[in-house]
Write a structure and sequence with these properties.
Layout: H1 6-15, H2 21-30, E1 36-40, H3 46-52, E2 57-62, H4 65-68, E3 77-81, H5 88-95, E4 103-107, H6 115-125, E5 132-142, H7 145-157, H8 164-170, E6 181-182, E7 193-201, H9 203-211, H10 214-221, H11 229-239, E8 246-258, H12 261-311
Parallel strand pairs: 1-2, 1-4, 2-3, 4-5
Antiparallel strand pairs: 5-8, 6-8, 7-8
Length: 312
């Protein structure tokens, strides 16, 4: 995800919706425990706040410091900046360790991740019994027929500037690799469920959304301005009263999964293997200590014998 300036981070925060609380209610009802949740790619904490209602502790992480500065504070949420230089072991330790997380959420974020290492970390930290991972994305706004028609043309104009990552979002995660066992009624790999996110949006907030929109920012990086003054004028005309705050919907797509039996078995073998290595290390350390101790006593005995012969 492109780093946002302070101004664009503010616009991003104002235009993005809060996720419906019933989403978190349903997810929490499916997890075995409610001790720890991880909101990865938290942004300014929209999902973390929802998780904090149901979990004793929420770890919220992001690579974007401008977003984290604006994160909503909560006594049960700890926010952490996680640069791309962090290793998998460092991430696992930061989140809570192996087999520790009851629910992992990536809201409007997983398509930006390097999926292979992310899924490796997920499978390590996710609680093996009763742990869930939920990912979702919203990729369309429903405002009004007049505004929606202009928005469709803008969306179509982004096609030359989209990355494969962006296309995962535009496709509503239908093509997202998701190596987890599906949860009944909550989507699965290739078949996300579709949900609505209600939101209220002013014209100013909508324009802010467009200017902080990743496809438009990517086009701008290549020297093409998609959100032109002419486009804004057309949106303003279609919007109607500039002071009108509209009830809108973001169209969202969600997949929820859990570890498969084979994942759990691999983790068990890995854990047992680590235990064996630890025991061997402990055994080797004991052997070294015993050898050093024996050598020390042998040295003392030799010195005593030498002294006795000399004095004689």
């Amino acid at each position: 995800m492109a780093a946002l300036s302070d101004k664009l981070a503010d616009a991003y925060q104002n235009a993005r919706p809060r996720y419906p609380i019933d989403w978190f209610t349903k997810l929490a009802a499916r997890t075995g425990q409610h001790k720890l949740a991880w909101d990865v790619g938290t942004g300014n904490g929209q999902a973390a706040i929802g998780l904090a209602e149901y979990f004793e502790k929420v770890v919220a992480t992001d690579i974007n410091e401008a977003q984290l500065k604006r994160a909503v504070k909560h006594e049960r949420i700890s926010y952490h900046h996680t640069p791309t230089t962090m290793s998998e072991d460092q991430m696992v330790a930061l989140v809570g360790g192996d087999n520790s997380v009851d629910l992992i959420v990536a809201a409007q974020a997983v398509h930006y991740f390097d999926l292979a290492p992310f899924y490796n970390i997920t499978k390590r930290v996710l609680r093996k019994e009763g742990g869930l991972i939920a990912v979702w994305v919203y990729n369309d706004l429903v405002i009004s027929p007049e505004v929606d028609a202009i928005m469709k043309r803008l969306v179509d104009s982004t096609f030359p500037f989209r990355t494969p990552i962006m296309n995962l979002a535009f496709d509503g995660y239908k093509t997202l690799p998701f190596p987890f066992e599906g949860v009944k009624g909550m989507g699965c790999e290739g078949k996300p469920i579709t949900l609505d996110i209600p939101h209220k949006l002013s014209l100013k907030g909508f324009i802010g959304f467009l200017r902080s929109w990743q496809p438009a920012m990517k086009a701008k990086e290549r020297g093409v301005e998609l959100v032109t003054e002419d486009l804004i004028n057309r949106f303003e005309e279609a919007w109607g009263d500039d002071d009108d705050v509209k009830d809108i919907f973001y169209k969202a797509h969600m997949i929820v999964g859990k570890l498969s039996a084979s994942d759990i078995e691999r983790h068990r073998k890995r854990f047992e293997s680590n235990c064996v290595v630890t025991k061997l290390k402990d055994s080797n350390n004991s052997a070294v200590i015993a050898s050093v101790t024996a050598a020390a006593f042998a040295g003392v005995a030799a010195y005593c014998a030498y002294s006795a012969r000399k004095n004689a």
